[in-house]
């Protein structure tokens, strides 16, 4: 990896476009493409006999962890306890020594994540680290290292590290499912096949969506508040979208589980606050569409991020609709990350902020 911006205006833009290659590289470490199965995950964590998995991380890494909770529970039937590291470390979480703990960190140096790791280690848990920097403190203090192999990430707002974390966590959850006998070898092959398709799909999406996103970003840059909604794994992605936007454009944004709309945020809906609805045509689609109707009925403007089937199935008026290809639920979070990242990026560019080094933020937070 060469550390320069190449043809890009910012490292963040470069890192967004590097994702297909970075993910291919990361997956190559975990997947046997010829056999279509997960390889090399064992490390010293024996998923087969675990009673639970504790996950702790900060920022974007936490949201990758929250996404993986859905996968570990669904594919490996493994109960997951997850929290932001700054809470986890002080919560006095009762831990069972028959559980394992996973810490997700791009830098491997985040102070709160490291403190959570030490808490779990003292409780006798096996420790796994999903890190980008293999020589980091978090990696060194772990029993098993799961590198995400994203290459150096310079932009403060995480992009390729996030999708590489997701890809590695998806592979781990599938591998854990096989070890635990909760998914069949056939399902493993199917899921691994979907993972393997990701880089190609991502390249196609990246080549296509930029013009739509740029137009939309111009409108978004005039807004004061933005609400993101999603269900299932689109819920952590809604939070990641809001985080990315506020980090680099300084526009106030919130990510909510779409089902929580009527428990609060619906009071904020008016024509000034765009609502970004992340809704692939999955088993949650109809429910999310009914939330969209609630937004539309109150004069809210909708930015609909969906797939081809989803676009065909809804005729609600929107401010913009971004249509992605139909993909399996297992890889939706990675594919749907792309418009989320590009939207934040182009909005920030319109606003003229310091995209790679946004005010008040640090790439790695090594103090509490
Ligand atoms: C900082 C960075 C974020 C990152 C978080 C966790 O807040 O600005 O981009 O997600 O720390 O960092 P880590 O290195 O532990 O993933």
TrEMBL record:
Q: Tell me the domain of life.
A: Bacteria
Endpoints of the signal sequence: none
Q: Name one GO cellular component term.
A: cytosol
One GO MF term on file is: glutamine-fructose-6-phosphate transaminase (isomerizing) activity
Give every SIS domain span.
Answer: 41-182, 216-358
Recite the UniProt keywords alphabetically: Aminotransferase, Cytoplasm, Glutamine amidotransferase, Repeat, Transferase
Tell me where it resides: Cytoplasm
Protein purpose? Catalyzes the first step in hexosamine metabolism, converting fructose-6P into glucosamine-6P using glutamine as a nitrogen source.
The protein here is known as Glutamine--fructose-6-phosphate aminotransferase [isomerizing]
Organism of derivation: Rhizobium setariae
Which lineage ranks, top first, belong to the organism behind this chain?
A: Bacteria, Pseudomonadati, Pseudomonadota, Alphaproteobacteria, Hyphomicrobiales
